[in-house]
Structures are given as structure tokens and as C-alpha cells.
């Protein structure tokens, strides 16, 4: 488990291998019970070494962080032996390919192109926002504020979807299935930490959440990873009740570290009608929409 304040890339390769080894049921891959007591869950180190055709000492050195020099064929063999999903395999290659880390530096502040903000403002029927890779909310439209929270009321460091998911009670209560949504957030953040181990803001976010939330601490230690995929989320909204929305994610060609996220509902569905009502409600003059965060 990463300690608070430890850079996410400290020994991610070894930690990930141990976590995935512990999570794999030996019976799932046809290993027979040899009668020996298993003192740890999942595969033994010697079983992983046998399946990947490497030495036990090599597995030990990888897991202890004493080497990162792993060839592509060996990585493929380890991934096959651990039966990694595509996202997990990609993460394995990402953390294994990290060379000696250079000095940590703070990435330049991200700005949203004016043309993209103009497009957001023109999406009157679709809640949408622009996110950084670590889930910072960089820009949003009125629909996103009405659906999720009034981001304008938050300071810049607070405008992070993962931080809100774990530390903001009002935002947390929106999720019909908070544990599932929160686990997905951690898996996305873990994947990004592997890609950018020198991101100071990401390191600070992980450290804060590790200290302040026991669920985050446990799920972070599990080393689950996930890349972009089609999502459906169900919210319990204080104005429109329960709605199930598709979450569309689009890359921004001019800003590779940004993505446009939009929330839509199937045509003719109750959720589409509820979303339409919310957007009309938010467009009415007055301050009831901008103050909604304080009411739930």
C-alpha cells in the first residue's frame, strides 16, 4: 500500500504484481491443490514464476522493487499468467516502462480553449464539462452545474470529481450506488498515476484521500485499474429524483490531456424527460438553481 505522501510511482510495478497475484484464484487457472497450506490468498510466487517461465528470484525482485528492467516478452508472460484484463495489461506495461524518475515537477496549469467553452455554453440540452486526466473540472456548462453541483462555488482545488466523490457529502449522496462509482474513480486515478508518476497535484490528491477516507485507502491498495469506457450512471437528484444517464467521453484534439464529458439519456425514456425538466428549471431566472448545492 502506498503511504500518505509517497509518490504514486514509488513501487507500483511490485505492488501491482502482488495485488493481482493475490486476487487470482488458483482453481480458475487449473492449478491442483497440492495439500500445502496457503498462507496468502491467490497464487504463490513460485506458481506465478512457473506460469510465466521466469525464476522465483526474478518475481521476488520485481515485487520488491529491486528491478524494473523487464522485457516485453516477460511482461506479456506475466500478464498472461495473471490473466490481466486489457486495462490491467496496459497499466502493467506503463509502470514497468518507467525509468529512473526525474525531479518531480508541477505540470503547467491547464486552460480550456475559448472555442471549447463556447461550445459548452451552447449545449443547452446536454450537461457537459471538460476534465483533466486526473478528473479536475476545468470548465462546465449550466446543465452540468444543475445536475452535479455548482462548481463556481468551489475553489479550484475542490473542483475534482474524485475528491468530491469521497469528501463532499452532498455530491456523494447523488450516487445511487456510491461504492461502485467510487471504486471506478479510484481505478481511473490509479491508471493515471501509473502514466504520470511525477504529477505533484495527483500525488497530493492521493495523499489527502489516503489520509482522510478509509475506503479510498483500501481501494487504492487493491491496485484495480481502468481506462476510458462506456459508462452508465444512476443519480438520485434532489430536484428530479432518480435518473440513469449515459456518460459520453471525447478526447480534445487540441489539448490531449483534456476530455469532454457529456451526460445523455435514451430517447423517450423517463430519464430523458427528467433531464429535460432539470435543464428547463435551471434556465429559469432567479437564484434557485445556483443555490441548489446548499439545499442537498
In short:
The chain has 296 residues and is an alpha+beta fold. 43% of the residues lie in helices and 11% in strands.
Portion in helices = 40-55%
Overall shape: elongated
| SS strand fraction | 5-15%
The quaternary organization reads as: single chain
Number of domains: 2
Q: Briefly note the structural class of the backbone.
A: alpha+beta
Number of strands: 5
User: How far is it from the N-terminal to the C-terminal residue, by CA?
Assistant: 35 Å
Radius of gyration: 22 Å
CATH architecture heading of the largest domain: 2-Layer Sandwich
Largest sheet: 5 strands, antiparallel
Query: Count of DSSP helices?
Result: 13
* Strand order across the largest sheet: 2-1-5-4-3
CATH class of the largest domain: Alpha Beta
The CATH topology of the largest domain, please? Answer: Beta-Lactamase
Average pLDDT, rounded to a whole number, is: 83
Uncertain spans: 1-8, 98-106, 288-296
Order of helices and strands: HHHHHHEEHHHHHHEEEH
Amino acid at each position: 500500500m502506498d503511504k500518505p505522501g509517497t509518490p504514486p510511482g514509488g513501487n507500483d510495478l511490485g505492488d501491482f504484481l502482488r495485488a493481482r497475484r493475490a486476487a487470482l484464484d488458483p482453481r480458475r487457472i487449473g492449478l491442483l491443490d497440492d495439500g500445502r497450506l496457503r498462507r496468502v490468498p491467490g497464487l504463490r510466487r513460485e506458481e506465478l514464476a512457473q506460469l510465466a517461465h521466469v525464476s522465483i528470484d526474478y518475481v521476488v525482485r520485481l515485487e520488491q522493487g529491486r528491478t524494473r528492467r523487464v522485457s516485453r516478452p516477460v511482461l506479456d508472460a506475466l500478464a498472461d499468467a495473471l490473466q490481466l484484463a486489457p486495462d490491467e495489461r496496459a497499466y502493467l506495461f506503463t509502470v514497468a516502462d518507467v525509468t529512473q524518475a526525474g525531479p518531480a515537477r508541477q505540470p503547467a496549469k491547464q486552460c480550456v480553449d475559448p472555442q471549447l467553452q463556447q461550445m459548452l455554453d451552447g449545449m443547452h440540452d446536454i450537461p457537459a464539462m471538460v476534465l483533466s486526466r486526473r478528473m479536475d473540472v476545468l470548465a462546465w456548462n449550466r446543465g452540468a452545474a444543475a445536475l452535479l453541483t455548482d462548481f463556481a462555488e468551489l475553489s479550484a482545488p475542490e473542483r475534482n470529481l474524485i475528491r468530491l466523490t469521497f469528501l463532499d457529502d452532498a455530491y456523494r449522496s447523488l450516487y445511487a450506488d456510491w461504492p461502485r462509482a467510487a471504486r471506478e474513480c479510484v481505478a481511473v486515478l490509479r491508471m493515471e498515476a501509473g502514466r504520470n508518476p511525477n504529477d505533484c497535484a495527483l500525488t497530493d490528491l492521493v495523499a489527502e484521500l489516503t489520509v482522510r477516507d478509509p475506503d479510498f485507502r483500501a481501494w487504492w491498495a487493491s491496485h484495480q485499474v481502468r481506462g476510458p469506457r462506456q459508462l452508465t450512471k444512476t443519480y438520485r437528484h434532489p430536484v428530479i429524483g432518480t435518473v440513469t444517464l449515459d456518460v459520453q467521453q471525447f478526447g480534445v484534439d487540441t489539448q490531449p490531456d483534456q476530455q469532454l464529458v457529456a451526460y445523455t439519456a435514451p430517447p423517450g425514456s423517463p430519464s430523458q424527460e427528467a433531464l429535460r425538466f432539470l435543464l428547463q428549471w435551471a434556465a429559469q431566472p432567479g437564484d434557485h438553481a445556483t443555490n441548489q448545492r446548499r439545499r442537498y
